[in-house]
What we know:
The protein is mainly alpha-helical. It has helices spanning about 20-45, 45-50, 55, 60-100, 110-120, 125-135, 170-190, 195, 235-245; strands at about 145, 150-155.
Amino acid sequence: MNGSPRNKNEMPDVPKIDFVGSMIEIWFSLNCAAYHLAYVRVYLQTAALRTPLSELVKLEQDLKNKTQADLVICRAHLAAFFWQIDHVFEALDISVKQGQKEHPELRYFWSYEKQLKKIEEEPARKEINAYRNKAHEAPAIIGTNWSGDHKFLHHFLPTISGLSNNDETDMNAKLHEYFEYTANVWLSFAPSDFKQKFPRDFRFVVTVPHSYIGELPPGLEHPPQLEVQIEAYDKSVETSEAARAAYLPEPARGVEPDIEPES
């Protein structure tokens, strides 16, 4: 049919972008990565992430729920951080190929492709990809080093067989290293006039975790929190049960209804 998308996942309402436009969108991905990194930094400073499990299980249920929420938020932002910085490299490859199609006469697009292939073999790039994949397969990739008397020392990323051993490296330092590495790769491919226009620092508002144990600025000791509740009930089951109950005859007093029990 004429006018139909060639790809079933194509979105005709989203405008197509050229090489320059795609580079701007990749910079947006870096912003998203910085946003997620900001949350990880804050939520790593919580009792949820710095208390032995043997102590957490002793908490009252309400406190357990709050520390669990802090853990979920931290893990979710860590997984999203790796997803965003890993996407930068994938998007750069797509952008370079787009540039080759738009300007086949410009040879530097072909040299860009060779540079990207070399970058794909660099240890930092491989580590980012490995952590991206593992964080979405099993989000528990936040390691914790304890002293002999079970006092918190630092967080770390798990070792990658044959690639890295990060047990003794502070996780915050390693994440920042990955972020700077990725941002500098983007800058190396960005048009020259972009290098001064796009900021190198990022600032975001972060909610204060329930179990935060870091130092807070004056006035934020008891900050108001906006809590959003998300539900995931099976409405179809509730509806069918309600309808079934409405149409069943009321049993006579002292008589059991003739209904087969559900298996």
